[in-house]
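Work Package 4 report. The design task specified in the project plan requires that, given a folded chain encoded as structure tokens, an amino acid be chosen for each position. We show below one input record used in the internal validation round.
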């Protein structure tokens, strides 16, 4: 994966284990409905509840905000982002437009060395998706591979402004981006 990160013009910084723990814990609480929209949550209280210091909690909240799960309210806390049908429709339409454009551009370059390498990378990700598809308790792995697949398409263009749009959650019924990384453009 590190080679793919460099090849397609993006770089990911790994999160600390505590930050990952906080990110996963909060995200799971959001997806399970334990944390509800329209409620102001305290970073300090949640840090104590999870049993970590405020720094990894703050970093996890930043990632959750970037991923579209929460809205941070400075000096107060955060709220779960509530999406309406229009938000979901808009997000899907934007992703389709961007990925359609990228796919068209990739098709025109498929016989280049870089284009052939992208095909190999996409095939590898698809193979991983197929391997975990029927396995029990592998939904998160499948979603991670799906996310990698779509990012490979968009990042092939080396057009950094498009990447954050592609990194928003997929609200078409999936749980959205399953991150172990956050984006840092070089």
């Amino acid at each position: 994966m590190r080679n793919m990160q460099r090849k397609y013009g993006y770089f990911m910084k790994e999160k600390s284990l505590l930050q990952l723990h906080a990110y996963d814990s909060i995200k799971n609480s959001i997806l399970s409905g334990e944390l509800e929209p329209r409620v102001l949550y305290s970073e300090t209280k949640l840090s104590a509840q999870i049993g970590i210091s405020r720094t990894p909690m703050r970093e996890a909240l930043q990632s959750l905000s970037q991923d579209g799960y929460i809205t941070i309210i400075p000096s107060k806390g955060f709220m779960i982002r509530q999406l309406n049908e229009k938000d979901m429709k808009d997000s899907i339409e934007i992703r389709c437009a961007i990925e359609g454009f990228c796919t068209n551009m990739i098709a025109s370059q498929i016989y280049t060395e870089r284009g052939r390498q992208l095909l190999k990378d996409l095939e590898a990700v698809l193979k991983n998706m197929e391997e975990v598809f029927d396995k029990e308790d592998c939904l998160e792995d499948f979603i991670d591979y799906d996310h990698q697949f779509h990012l490979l398409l968009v990042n092939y263009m080396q057009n950094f402004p498009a990447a954050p749009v592609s990194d928003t959650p997929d609200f078409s019924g999936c749980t959205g981006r399953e991150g172990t990384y956050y984006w840092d453009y070089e």
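DSSP finds eight helices and four strands in the chain. Validation will be extended to a larger panel in the next phase.
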